[in-house]
């Protein structure tokens, strides 16, 4: 049984020799050691165990020159995932139609099963695709709806999803009823009430973004879904920012349909995503890219995407292993700790306005802040220009500032540097 001492002493041994590069290429044994590592500490206590997180940092190949605090946009993969993509790519290029379609793709069903197990659903309800946009658009554009049918969503939903529903509004005569949220929010019942107020007898779908990308607000998806179901309304959940970030199984959110990217918090290769829907819903959703049986209840009808890189899909398996080794509870606790580490200090600075709740129920890794008198673009360009810190400028609805998203490889030194930057900006 790997103990904490063995684990750390192995790390110390590797660190004291020149073996760091091999440590970076995590082996199966390394992953097994991480997975089996059962510390005496709780996930919350582990969140501050810098020895452990130092090890995790070594699994990534991120630039030491630039501090990337926009992991919410897209996340890097650990080297074990990058290496898998490279291996599959090299193999595919020996004879693509043979190795990619006949050999590499034999991993599709095992991967579906592993993803389903992780997500707490049946493999017959999981389709592997390229991103959250594709997953969610499959449902939005494939659902049979009629003129006059209504949709409930909010203006803080992701633009691609707003665009997709608005296209249906334009093309099919649907009507969108918008929930007006004030963010950050710390009253779940008020949020639920605002969604319920927009539901009418004509409402067919409620669209919920589980974690709002702009400021990291966690919405009470299950409660909203319960209210929708009481009224016979279906629920589509955008899990792009919560999958492999918060600890939950997809059914816990109460939706009928769910889409996510895997290249965000799972650290899977860039260009990977997943669609889930209840088995009984599959037959009525028309695929975006049809196969020969668009009305079938086989979830695989959503994977008829044409020629695409199966090496990217297959390396999702390595990302999933990495996630399992990290442990969901540990990861969620660490991400929240990193957010709190900088945000609590930044909030105390003059002119700084934190636009994210610091209560665990309402946020995870993502947070947004503004600085009185400075626009989003200015904050972002100063942070990058003077401190080489990459963040995401966000000016959306009532938010004006930058979003900061650390990941499991982010160090406390990186966040100290961010605080230096925010302090500098607060004095401008
Ligand atoms: C809430 C939310 N939904 C959907 C998406 C779309 O993800 P992708 O670009 O991977 O399709 C994003 C991307 O940032 C997002 O933040």
CATH class label of the largest domain: Alpha Beta
From the helix content, strand content and strand pairing, which structural class follows? alpha/beta
Total beta strand runs: 13
**CATH architectural grouping of the largest domain:** 3-Layer(aba) Sandwich
- The proportion of residues forming helix, as a percent range, comes to 40-55%
The CATH homologous superfamily of the largest domain corresponds to Type I PLP-dependent aspartate aminotransferase-like (Major domain)
- What molecules are bound to this protein? pyridoxal-5'-phosphate
CATH level-3 fold name of the largest domain: Aspartate Aminotransferase, domain 2
Strand content: 5-15%
Overall geometry? globular
Radius of gyration: 22 Å
Mean pLDDT: 93
The number of helical elements comes to: 17
SSE sequence, one letter per element: HHHHHEHHHEHEHEHEHEEEHHHEEHEEEH
Query: What low-confidence regions span 5 or more consecutive residues with pLDDT below 50?
Result: 1-24
Number of domains: 2
How far apart are the first and last residues' alpha carbons, in Å?
A: 54 Å
Oligomer: single chain
Description:
With 428 residues, the protein is of the alpha/beta class. It has two domains: 87-320, Type I PLP-dependent aspartate aminotransferase-like (Major domain) (Aspartate Aminotransferase, domain 2); 331-426, Aspartate Aminotransferase, domain 1 (Alpha-Beta Complex). Helices cover 43% and strands 14% of the residues. It contains 17 helices and 13 strands. It has helices at residues 4-16, 20-24, 28-36, 43-46, 50-58, 79-92, 96-103, 108-119, 132-142, 159-172, 188-198, 221-230, 310-314, 316-326, 328-348, 376-387, 412-426, and strands at residues 67-68, 126-129, 150-154, 175-179, 203-209, 234-238, 257-261, 273-277, 352-354, 367-371, 389-390, 392-396, 399-404. The strands form three sheets. A seven-stranded mixed beta sheet has the order 2-8-7-6-5-3-4, sandwiched between helices. Strand 5, helix 12 and strand 6 (234-238) form a beta-alpha-beta unit. Helix 8 packs parallel to helix 14 (316-326). The longest helix is centred in the last third of the chain and has 21 residues, at 328-348. Residues 1-24 have low confidence and may be disordered. The structure holds pyridoxal-5'-phosphate. Pyridoxal-5'-phosphate binds at residues 131-133, 158, 160, 209, 213, 238, 240-241, 261.
